[in-house]
Automatic annotation (TrEMBL):
Protein name, as recorded: (S)-3-amino-2-methylpropionate transaminase
Cofactor field: pyridoxal 5'-phosphate
Enzyme class, broadest EC rank: transferase
Keywords: Aminotransferase, Pyridoxal phosphate, Transferase
Catalysed reaction equations from the record: (S)-3-amino-2-methylpropanoate + 2-oxoglutarate = 2-methyl-3-oxopropanoate + L-glutamate; 4-aminobutanoate + 2-oxoglutarate = succinate semialdehyde + L-glutamate
Phylogenetic lineage: Bacteria, Bacillati, Actinomycetota, Actinomycetes, Micrococcales
NCBIfam families: GABAtrnsam (TIGR00700)
Family: Belongs to the class-III pyridoxal-phosphate-dependent aminotransferase family.
Entry-linked InterPro entries: 4NH2But_aminotransferase_bac (IPR004632), Aminotrans_3 (IPR005814), Aminotrans_3_PPA_site (IPR049704), Class-III_PLP-dep_AT (IPR050103), PyrdxlP-dep_Trfase (IPR015424), PyrdxlP-dep_Trfase_major (IPR015421), PyrdxlP-dep_Trfase_small (IPR015422)
Pathway: Amino-acid degradation; 4-aminobutanoate degradation
TM segment ranges: none
Pfam families linked to this entry: Aminotran_3
EC assignment: 2.6.1.19, 2.6.1.22
Segment forming the signal sequence: none
Length: 456
């Protein structure tokens, strides 16, 4: 072929934004791919649905068999703006043209600084802030603990029942759930203590007593187990994620934060899943009326690229010895470019308002469904972070994991990707893209209605 003839690749047609099932799910090509996986990938790595994806746009996942799945997992709250945003792809390509990696702790670059500026501006707190970047939420949690211990000179860290903070060792120690996250991996880092979480739906003396009794139990457990003067920090998810999107009583975190301030204890808000507009605010801590000393971020910060951060009071971050924080890939330039584009879009589209609208619609439909099926024990969450807890029903709050599994299976058969969660796997977590269309949202809710009827 003559060298002066240009070769062009035909532009791909955009995916139609509609759910479409053309084979069983998983289909034959996915089944074959699963066989390859089993022969090559460690069995300890799970999969919600072994349907293999070859392309994704908007709210749709296209699998290798040609099925178009409606994504209500968003990569576990990562793809908040949906898949394949051209603005983010353009930003990443531009960064690749400049450089892929230099290591910020060796040869720094503007993109890292700009992300930190954005985090300082968007996280709650009317005080001077600093930020540091990492590659994953677990890594950021670990570093938040390092910062708290370094700057307070104390060792104790208090976490909560039902909490999830990651799979690395300190994060596992903070996580409350043994299976599958902790079993067989002990011993864990020391000086980690646990307090009761105000799980109103299951509070022993009733929902009305949760706030007062849970706070009293928190204070008593900290005083008894470790002593206030020995606590470096209290870490919590403003809304529990892995545990089933459990929302504490209004005002609970404010009480905890005020009490911590009295005793010189730092407050660490783990906003890895709740952050970046998911709950109807940029950060869930703002809704709670608190200003955490440290905010841990990740997941949706870069809409699919590996990035995380710790943001907090300048006096705290600046007190850590130089060189004490960092990492080879931490704050990678490509991920930073994606994060800057992501946050720009979130501002432009008013992503918190989108989340609130989605949540209102989901809760309304599910509440109507709850009137027909008493196996739906509770619908909870905030914004576009909504959970369903299944129970035996008729006044019996016994967790019903079989119902949850049947619901998920029914949704998957129709091409709606949802995930089970909860301490007994009795809950469903709904995490649609914040940019989902009204038509796709209605379609998903129709599928869920049929799934409840089928499973029940």
């Amino acid at each position: 072929m003559p060298s002066d003839i240009a070769v062009t690749t035909p532009a791909r047609q955009p995916l139609t934004q509609q759910r479409r099932v053309v084979t069983s799910i998983p289909g034959p090509k996915s089944v074959a791919m699963q066989e390859r996986r089993l022969a090559a990938v460690g069995n300890s790595v799970g999969a919600v649905l072994p349907t293999y994806i070859e392309r994704a746009e908007g709210s749709i996942l296209l699998d290798v068999d040609g099925n178009q799945l409606l994504d209500f997992g968003s990569g576990i709250a990562v793809n908040a703006l949906g898949h394949g945003r051209p603005e983010i792809a353009d930003a990443v390509r531009a960064q690749l043209d400049d450089f892929a990696h230099t290591c910020f702790t060796v040869s720094p670059y503007e993109e890292y600084v700009a992300v930190c500026e954005q985090l300082n501006a968007h996280t709650p707190g009317d005080f001077e802030k600093r930020s540091v970047l990492f590659s994953s939420g677990s890594e950021a949690v670990e570093n938040a603990v390092k910062i708290a211990r370094s700057t307070t000179g104390r060792q104790g860290i208090v976490a909560f029942d039902y909490g999830y903070h990651g799979r690395t060792y300190m994060a596992m120690a903070l996580t409350a759930k043994a299976l599958p996250y902790k079993s067989g991996f002990a011993p864990f880092p020391a000086e980690v203590y646990r307090a009761p979480f105000p799980y109103s739906y299951r509070w022993p003396t009733g929902e009305a007593n949760t706030l007062e009794e849970a706070f009293a139990a928190f204070v008593d457990s900290v005083h008894t187990q470790v002593g206030e003067k020995n606590v470096a920090a209290v870490i919590f998810e403003p809304i529990l994620g892995e545990a089933g999107f459990i929302v504490p009583p209004a005002g609970y975190w404010k009480r905890v934060a005020d009490w911590c301030a009295l005793h010189g204890i730092l407050v660490i808000a783990d906003e890895v899943q709740t952050g970046f507009c998911r709950t109807g605010d940029w950060f869930a801590s703002s809704y709670e009326g608190i200003e955490p000393d440290l905010v841990v971020t990740g997941k949706a910060i870069a809409n699919g690229y590996p990035l995380a951060g710790v943001t907090g009071r300048a006096s705290i971050l600046d007190a850590v010895p130089k060189g004490g924080l960092g990492g080879t890939y931490a704050g990678n330039g490509i991920a930073c470019a994606a994060a800057l584009a992501t946050m720009k879009i979130m501002d432009e589209v008013d992503a918190p308002a989108l989340a609130r609208t989605i949540g209102t619609k989901i809760v309304a439909r599910l509440t109507a469904l709850q009137q027909k099926y008493d196996v739906i024990g509770e619908i909870r969450g905030r914004g576009a972070m909504i959970g369903i807890e299944f129970v035996l029903g008729a006044g019996d709050k016994t967790p019903h994991p079989e119902m949850a599994a049947a619901f998920v299976a029914a949704c998957h058969r129709e091409g709606l990707l949802v995930m089970v969660t909860g301490d007994k796997k009795q809950c469903i977590r709904l995490l649609p893209p914040l940019t989902i269309s009204d038509e796709l949202l209605d379609d998903a809710l129709d599928v869920m209605e049929r799934a409840v009827a089928t499973a029940a």
